[in-house]
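Supplementary material to the annual report.
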Amino acid sequence: AAGVIQSPRHLIKEKRETATLKCYPIPRHDTVYWYQQGPGQDPQFLISFYEKMQSDKGSIPDRFSAQQFSDYHSELNMSSLELGDSALYFCASSQLYNEQFFGPGTRLTVL
Amino acid sequence: EDQVTQSPEALRLQEGESSSLNCSYTVSGLRGLFWYRQDPGKGPEFLFTLYSAGEEKEKERLKATLTKKESFLHITAPKPEDSATYLCAVQEKSNYQLIWGAGTKLIIKP
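Predicted assembly:
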């Protein structure tokens, strides 16, 4: 069965640089979520989109933005990166607001 | 305040030793409770959704149950490959965001 695809899987950036993470949801899923997970922590909700419109916002820094495109893929843009942004970033998708299926994640390291 | 508490934080079992993980929750109105399994460095893997008290779901060695205040994930005769962190998340009726527990790290020794 098709799963959520995320790219890149690993990303290394310097402080103050910009990063773009991509997410391709499961086909026919209409809702996409972005999460940040630090070591030993539960996933922290950042933002979600339903049918290409922002539907909910969590603890997303103002330096981050996201959007969902006409083909339903989503991108998380992160600017002015800080050391504390180093984490695993997960994308998840669902049909409406039912169970969420997670991608493999992008490991971001900020040096 | 809405919250989800998982216990224990960590659990070590011998292979074949059955046990249960607990997820207690406080929300104004439950829409659904979700169980996930997460291996280190990987995305959470969906296991079960429970919607109402009394509901039970099973998958291989795992069985999830739900009451009005808590959910249990029972693991029967576990194997080393069941070692992982098990996460519980609750979804309110009024807000579709998931409220996550901190997880239980399960280690099954051969």
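The mean pLDDT of chain A is 95.
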